[in-house]
Amino acid sequence: MSIEPLTSTRNWESCPTVSTHVAFQSTHVNHNYLFNFYLPLIATVDHVTITNQTSDPCIKPWACHTQNQTPPRTVTTNILAKMVPAPSLAGVHVDNVAFQPTTKVPGSDKTLFLGGAGVRGLEIQGNFVKFTAIGVYLEDTAVPSLSIKWSGKSADELSESVEFFRDIVTGPFEKFIRVTMILPLTGHQYSEKVTENCVAFWKSVGIYTDAEAKAIEEFLKVFKDEKFPPGSSILFTQSPNGSLTISFSKDESIPESGNAVIKNKLLSEAVLESIIGKHGVSPAAKKSLATRVSELLKDSNDKEAENQKLMAENQKLKVENQKLEAEIKILKAGNSEIGGHK
């Protein structure tokens, strides 16, 4: 019986993780032939795991030249994929305020990434006066969520789109807002300005109800006696379920828990809307957010394309593995035939 060896010219280093199991249950097979046959397939993989099920192991099966030596019964090759790294962006400094690339947030066990950061200020008598530095953090799931509609858009296109920022505000993922003081501010000043704008908008669109009125009262109460010197921060964690966790920090540290939780979806969204919405108070934060998210969406698209290639390659390998298993069956049948003629 003549059996021609299979050959493979596949670039194994670019393949997804695959395991090929070759079982030898007969000691009459030409071991030298078998292992020289499989050697081209395992010589270029990242590592080879050899499982021996005999009392007299052959440490290097492809070096066995006689049938008196018993090779391992199982050879497992693990081909490690070259996975595309997850997208990541650097931190940002805004007027000497450092925003880390990722952070844990109060009221959540998740780590969010920095979507964008910028200053909030006003033109006063010909001078631009900076009041706060604002960082907007997003949950990782924001990237695939936003890519559905905004994939392929440039940073300029995103920064000019009211709908894009609205999708961030209302998206089904966590957001975290850090407002760090450049100039001192009282809690009363901050909360009055935020709630004033919220109520005016809600009334204009007819969605201001008793629930929103109660949420506003809670919001004002949380800030009533607070004072924020330069370097201190107001922190908001916006949950997809509609709750708003409010925290305070006197330095760059982030507390594990919040000072208060207000369960009102409109108010929760309004805080971020006031920063990056159509009339948002920080055009710089909006520009930064659009630029960085645009980069992440591009990376996400590239990764998806690479994953599709890997999936296709994996399917080809499955077919090839089935062919190898069929070849083993032929070898076993040939071995049985040879043994029967002895």
How would you describe this structure in keywords?
single chain; 342 residues; alpha+beta; seven-stranded antiparallel beta sheet; three-stranded antiparallel beta sheet; 8 helices; 14 strands; 40% helix; elongated; disordered N terminus; CFI; Chalcone isomerase domain-containing protein; chalcone isomerase activity
Describe it for me?
The strands form four sheets. This protein has a seven-stranded antiparallel beta sheet with strand order 6-7-8-9-12-13-14. The protein has a three-stranded antiparallel beta sheet with strand order 1-3-2. Strands 4-5 form a two-stranded antiparallel sheet. Residues 1-87 have low confidence and may be disordered. It has 342 residues and is of the alpha+beta class. It is elongated and about 100 Å long. It has eight helices and 14 strands. The protein has helices at 31-42, 142-150, 155-159, 162-170, 187-204, 210-223, 265-276, 283-340, and strands spanning 18-23, 47-51, 74-79, 92-94, 97-99, 102-104, 111-124, 127-138, 175-181, 185-186, 227-228, 233-238, 243-249, 260-263.
Instruction: Enumerate how many helices there are, as a single number.
Output: 8
Spans where pLDDT lies below 50 across 5 or more residues? 1-87
* Strand order within the widest beta sheet: 6-7-8-9-12-13-14
Based on CA atoms alone, the radius of gyration comes out at 31 Å
Helix fraction bin: 40-55%
Beta strand %: 15-25%
Element string (H = helix, E = strand): EHEEEEEEEHHHEEHHEEEEHH
Task: Give the structural class.
Answer: alpha+beta
End-to-end separation: 15 Å
Task: Give a quick account of the main beta sheet: strands, pairing sense, barrel closure.
Answer: 7 strands, antiparallel
What's the β-strand tally?
14
Give the averaged pLDDT, no decimals: 78
Shape descriptor reads elongated
GO molecular function, one term: chalcone isomerase activity
Pfam families: Chalcone
Domain Chalcone isomerase: 94-296
GO biological process, one term: flavonoid biosynthetic process
